Automatic annotation (TrEMBL):
Keyword Iron-sulfur: no
UniProt family annotation: Belongs to the iron/ascorbate-dependent oxidoreductase family.
Parts of the chain that traverse the membrane: none
Family annotation (PROSITE patterns): FE2OG_OXY (PS51471)
GO MF assignments: L-ascorbic acid binding; metal ion binding; oxidoreductase activity
Domain (Fe2OG dioxygenase) ranges: 207-309
Lineage start: Eukaryota, Viridiplantae, Streptophyta, Embryophyta, Tracheophyta
Family matches, as Pfam families: 2OG-FeII_Oxy (PF03171), DIOX_N (PF14226)
Protein's UniProt name: Fe2OG dioxygenase domain-containing protein
UniProt keyword terms in alphabetical order: Iron, Metal-binding, Oxidoreductase, Vitamin C
Length: 365
């Protein structure tokens, strides 16, 4: 999510999805129609019992010994087997969740001209528009995005911050502060599941990089042909996703080569392990590929926070997690370099992580 200024590139005409819906609700321009192999399988089956684990955060923090222990085991299982989990009783004021959703929704409902004052420039990843588009023939996602770098302050681009709704910036600041604390706490528990000191990641990360992306998925007359968001893994250490209240499901994760829907749990956050933790844990905890599908009738909002080490951090497998049974899978690299590589590549499954593989053939300079 680094705001990397890069030279102008040709991305062709990018339709604004909300405007498309208004002018021709049944029209799906060719650029949104996925090739057969990419088209989504939609969730028509009854919910499977094999779903993303749910972690009760309050039991981690203030449960009795037994509760804490069993929740830690569940967290370990979630990180090892799923790379995804939902957190309930996270302690963040539910009123704040409601407020961030309101300012996000109000922003997306503004007239296009108003939103375009904060337009994402081609090849960059901050502002309003479609990120990760780098060519004229690349398929587009059925989604409008607003992405903003938050911390440290030098990654902020103030002109991209909406001035409407009035409470937008204030709400984002308060929300981000709370989510930052949640990330720090979760990383402490995750460190403990790895037999590391609780403050291991905090110390290593320095002043962590934090960004927010609000994704608005309008309904789509042909959800079978399009994707809301292309398959990808996140470049972060941890990602925290809030789904709009009453929004239909839409997030799917690739588990054992099958796309599994993440059923929304009211007031919960969906957390996932990003590429950075996969590398640090030498693949013990995986950054799982995921995507979003659209709904025929309902719109969907998600508010996503990315939490990552400072750009100066040197990353590589933690020595304690490498031994003869777990040989070193990733090289050591600079996180800023990885971020730059991530934001200048299109979303394509876990391809960006090739960068970090020991046998990587991608040039790093
Ligand atoms: C993301 C993401 C999924 C969703 O923004 O990185 O994976 O459901 N979003 O919006
Ligand atoms: Ni993601």
């Amino acid at each position: 999510m680094a705001p990397v200024p890069i030279s102008p590139i040709k991305v062709g005409h990018i339709d604004d999805v909300q405007e498309l819906r208004k002018s021709g609700p049944a029209t799906i321009p060719e650029r949104f129609v996925r090739d057969m192999t990419e088209r989504p399988t939609l969730d028509t089956a009854p919910p499977s019992t094999n779903t993303v684990p749910v972690i009760d955060f309050s039991r981690l923090v203030k449960g009795n010994k037994e509760e804490h222990k069993s929740e830690m085991l569940e967290l370990t299982r979630a990180c090892e087997e799923w790379g995804f989990f939902q957190v309930i009783n996270h302690g963040i004021d539910l009123g704040l969740l409601k407020s961030i959703e309101k300012v996000a929704k109000d922003f997306f409902m503004l007239p296009l001209g108003e939103k375009q004052k904060h337009q994402m420039l081609p090849g960059t990843v901050q502002g309003y528009g479609q990120a990760f588009v780098f060519s004229e023939d690349q398929k587009l996602d059925w989604c409008n995005m607003l992405a903003l770098g938050l911390e440290p302050h030098f990654i902020r681009v103030p002109e991209l911050w909406p001035t409407e709704p009035l409470k937008f910036s204030e709400t984002v600041e308060i929300y981000s502060g709370e989510v930052r604390k949640l990330c720090q706490h979760l990383l402490q528990y995750i460190a403990m599941t790895l037999n590391l000191r609780a403050d291991f990641f905090e110390e290593m990360f320095g002043v962590a990089v934090q960004a927010i992306r609000m994704n608005y998925y309008p309904p789509c007359a042909r959800p079978d042909l399009v994707l809301g968001l292309s398959p990808h893994s996140d470049g972060s250490a941890l990602t925290v996703l809030q789904q709009g209240k009453g929004s239909p499901g839409g997030l799917q994760i690739l588990k054992d080569s099958k796309w599994v829907p993440v059923q929304p749990v009211p007031d919960a956050f969906v957390i996932n392990i990003g590429d950075t933790l996969e590398v640090l844990t030498n693949g013990k905890y995986k950054s799982v590929e995921h995507r979003a599908v659209t709904d025929r009738e309902k719109d969907r909002l998600s508010i996503v926070t990315f939490y990552a080490p400072s750009y100066e951090t040197e990353l590589g497998p933690i020595p304690e997690l490498v031994d003869e049974n777990n040989p070193c899978k990733y090289r050591t690299y600079n996180h800023g370099e990885y971020s730059k590589h991530y934001v200048t590549s299109k979303l394509q499954g876990k391809k960006t992580l090739e960068f970090a593989k020991v046998e990587s053939k991608i040039a790093t300079s």
